[in-house]
Write a structure and sequence with these properties.
Number of domains: 1
Helix content: 10-25%
Number of helices: 2
Shape: globular
Largest sheet: 5 strands, mixed
CATH class: Alpha Beta
Strand content: 35-45%
CATH superfamily: Nucleoside Triphosphate Pyrophosphohydrolase
Length: 141
């Protein structure tokens, strides 16, 4: 566990689906580097979970999120960090995500749910599992 982290943090993520594909980007310069992830980040003081998901999607991928559907909550202890993570499914219509924070990601694309790139960022793995199973709580290890 990272010495500077004295308590768990709250992470919020949002995944986008289109025609049986999910948009993923390869993380760079942060924990979980070189794993495939969706938009997400830290919940800020006074922010709702939905506001956080929408803000992170705009900051990282340049998209405006419409409807959000709760997927799951997970206790994640990985990459030397501890997070309470909340994941959503977001509607971006026909918008095309772009890497708006080029230092945060190295590549991106739409991937078939049946043929995902590996390794997946742990929070995204749980979000996609939730999509397939309907499970909404993952207690962690």
């Amino acid at each position: 566990m990272a010495a500077e982290q004295s308590m768990p943090q709250v992470g919020v993520g949002v995944v986008f689906l289109r025609d049986g594909r999910v948009f993923l980007a390869k993380r760079h310069g942060s924990h979980g580097e070189d794993t495939w992830a969706s938009a997400g980040g830290h919940l800020e003081m006074g922010e709702t979970l939905e506001e956080c998901a929408r803000r992170e999607a705009m900051e990282e991928l340049g998209v405006t999120v419409g409807d959000l559907r709760f997927l799951c909550v997970t206790n994640i202890i990985a990459y030397g960090k501890h997070y309470l993570d909340i994941e959503f499914l977001g509607d971006i219509g026909e918008q095309e995500p772009v890497l708006a924070e080029p230092d945060a990601f190295t590549e991106s694309g739409w991937f078939p749910l049946v043929d995902l790139p590996q390794p997946l960022f742990e929070a995204v793995w749980y979000a996609l599992d939730s999509l397939g199973t309907g499970r909404y709580y993952y207690p962690g290890s």
